[in-house]
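Action item from last meeting closed. Structure (407 res):
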């Protein structure tokens, strides 16, 4: 079994996880904006997300010869470690619910702001819990100022959302002027849309990002309709996702380190790979059950679908499968780094809004043609996240190997 043992290796895992976990939401958002039903996308995503856990378990979890206190993955499956397994599976349940909620929140609140709020809630609650579960191996005088930076960032993120919403409202009020600048004849519009369908892109891509015409074209194309919906829907989904995310890392921490002494004497703690395997099983099962249910009983006035329609919907499937792989490997790397340097420090990957905001601006034209106030708030938010991730990584400790097994 391969274990990350150095602080440098742990930080390397965190950086890779940061990129992966910040990229997969952009892929799901892209597919929703192109009109693919979120139920179809999440089913594809769930398959490869679970596959990534299997691949990690059967490779890193089986490298070399196992030890009595650090058994390999397959050897540990037969051990009587169900209390820890239940903690791991509980973490998978809340992560699945959080990811599912955030998928719908992306449409209402936007990719950047959704990630800012959920990540900040995760850090403020989850990192604080992990600090005490990790027997305070992280430096409190560094860790908690980092948590404070995330808390400031959530307020800045809320201000960005409010300012950007006001900008969009002003654009729509001046719709007639914008439309004259980007006018397209009825015949030309039909031709553009037919070509968009062929290459799987939105007609909004052919209009300057940030204009009222762009916003209206996007609304016509996307799967989740947001115009006229209460802002409370998006905010409720976002905060629900954040609360779920704040619980999955502490649950995984308990699964691998048994701080509550639930295992029988002589039973080794779950390795990070075994815990991740059980974690991913419950995540997969919950996702499949809920999304098959949503096919026939959709939420938010989405159209009904079926398993047959899902299987036939191959448009964008490869992007959804890639998103699942990125999320699966991102979670695995986060847990590998957390086992070495402390899960509180590993929560630095919650600075993933830095990556998601980049994709949001580059791919989706978020904040294009916004006011100076919005740009100033956006820059302040990103700066605070840069400070926060640096501070959390600087708080990294090192877990003593003598505590990896129950005495």
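Sequence:
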């Amino acid at each position: 079994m391969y274990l990350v043992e150095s602080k440098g290796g742990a930080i390397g895992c965190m950086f890779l996880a940061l990129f992966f976990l910040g990229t997969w939401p952009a892929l799901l958002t892209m597919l929703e904006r192109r009109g693919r039903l979120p139920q179809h996308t999440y089913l594809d995503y769930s398959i490869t997300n679970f596959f990534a856990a299997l691949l990690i378990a059967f490779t890193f979890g089986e490298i070399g010869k196992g030890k009595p206190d650090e058994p390999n993955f397959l050897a540990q499956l037969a051990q009587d470690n169900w209390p820890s397994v239940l903690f791991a599976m509980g973490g998978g349940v809340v992560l699945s619910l959080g990811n599912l909620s955030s998928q719908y929140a992306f449409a209402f609140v936007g990719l950047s702001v959704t990630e800012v709020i959920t990540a900040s809630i995760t850090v403020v609650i989850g990192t604080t819990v992990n600090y005490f579960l990790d027997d305070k191996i992280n430096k409190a005088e560094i860790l908690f100022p980092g948590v404070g930076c995330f808390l400031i960032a959530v307020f800045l993120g809320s201000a960005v959302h409010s300012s950007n919403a006001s900008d969009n409202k002003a654009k729509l009020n001046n719709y007639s002027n914008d439309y004259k600048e980007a006018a397209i004849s009825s015949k030309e519009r039909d031709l553009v849309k037919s070509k968009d369908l062929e290459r799987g892109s939105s007609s909004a891509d052919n209009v300057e990002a940030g204009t009222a015409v762009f916003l209206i074209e996007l609304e016509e194309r996307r799967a989740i309709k947001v115009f006229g919906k209460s802002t409370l829907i998006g905010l409720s989904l976002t905060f629900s996702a954040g609360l779920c995310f704040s619980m999955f890392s502490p649950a995984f921490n308990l699964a691998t380190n048994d701080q509550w002494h639930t295992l029988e004497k002589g039973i080794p703690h779950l390795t990070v790979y075994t815990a991740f395997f059980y974690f991913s099983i419950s995540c997969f099962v919950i996702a499949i059950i809920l999304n098959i249910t949503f096919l026939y009983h959709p939420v938010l006035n989405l159209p009904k679908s079926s398993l047959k329609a899902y299987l036939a919907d191959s448009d964008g499937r490869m992007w959804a499968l890639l998103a699942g792989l990125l999320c699966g490997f991102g979670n695995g790397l986060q847990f590998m780094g957390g086992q070495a340097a402390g899960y509180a420090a590993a929560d630095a990957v919650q600075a993933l809004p830095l990556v998601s905001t980049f994709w949001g601006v580059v791919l989706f034209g978020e904040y294009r043609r916004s006011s100076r106030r919005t740009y100033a708030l956006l820059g302040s938010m990103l700066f605070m996240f840069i400070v926060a991730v640096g501070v959390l990584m600087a708080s990294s400790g090192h877990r003593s190997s003598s505590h990896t097994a129950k005495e």
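Note appended to the action item: The CA atoms of residues 323 and 356 lie 13 Å apart.
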